[in-house]
Design goal:
This protein has about 220 residues and is an all-alpha fold. The chain has helices at about 10-25, 40-50, 55-75, 80-95, 105-115, 120-125, 130-135, 140-160, 170-180, 190-200, 205-215. Helices cover about 60% and strands about 0% of the residues. The protein starts with 8 loop residues before the first helix and ends with a helix.
């Protein structure tokens, strides 16, 4: 999520805090348990994606996170194809309402998926991908990995854009150097990245090493 603010410096912190408060969901149960296993088809998911998300940069971010969720579910969790799609769907739609309705971020896409009778686990993963903003703690492995991929994926892509060869020969050391530079991709929360790694039980090095090759060819 990117916050663009035009105001004097003393008011920025207060405004951010006020905006974050407005994003709190006020609940931690989503959907109907009887809808477990129900998903949107790929056609339905991409129709929603294309209708709601017009910003090409945001579209790419969401596709990258979807690819990471798919790759992790398949290679690390050894899930079947239908469960892999559940993970991918959570990644694909996690920021679906940010482009047109930033003040309703997560609330609007959650309500839409609830109306469409989507699996509550998918909805909970979306609701918890930024628990400091939305007030929903990541609980399942799907929750934790979506949270883990979201911010770090964005920073790694930003790093690729400043490199002459993009993702080619990108390494862990270079990414961690950018992480230490607070001014680089300043909107990316380092605290969220560290917290997400701890919750997911994965080292930062291992997470970076997983993300780089997966994101390389996502368009």
């Amino acid at each position: 999520m990117i916050f663009v603010v035009q105001m004097t410096a003393p008011t920025i912190k207060f405004t951010f805090q006020k905006f974050y408060m407005s994003l709190l969901l006020g609940r931690d149960v989503f959907g109907d348990a009887t809808n477990a296993g129900k998903v949107l088809s790929q056609e339905e998911a991409y129709e929603l994606f294309n209708d709601w998300v017009k910003n090409p940069r945001l579209q790419l971010h969401m596709k990258q996170v979807a690819a990471l969720m798919r790759a992790w579910a398949k290679s690390k969790e050894n899930l079947n194809d239908s469960d892999v799609w559940r993970w991918e769907l959570a990644g694909l739609l996690h920021d679906a309402d940010w482009d047109q309705w930033p003040e309703k971020h997560c609330k609007k896409i959650i309500e839409e998926l609830e109306k469409r009778n989507v699996d509550p686990e998918i909805i909970h993963a979306i609701a918890s991908h930024g628990h400091l903003h939305f007030g929903v703690i990541p609980q399942t492995k799907m929750d934790k990995m979506l949270y883990a991929f979201d911010e770090l994926s964005g920073l790694i892509h930003a790093y690729s854009l400043m490199r002459p060869n993009g993702y080619e020969a990108m390494d862990i050391k270079g990414v961690k150097k950018r992480l230490k530079e607070k001014s680089f991709a300043a909107n990316v929360s380092r605290d969220d990245i560290n917290d997400a790694c701890e919750r997911a039980g994965i080292s930062l090095d291992d997470l970076i090493a997983f993300i780089i090759p997966v994101q390389t060819n996502v368009e």
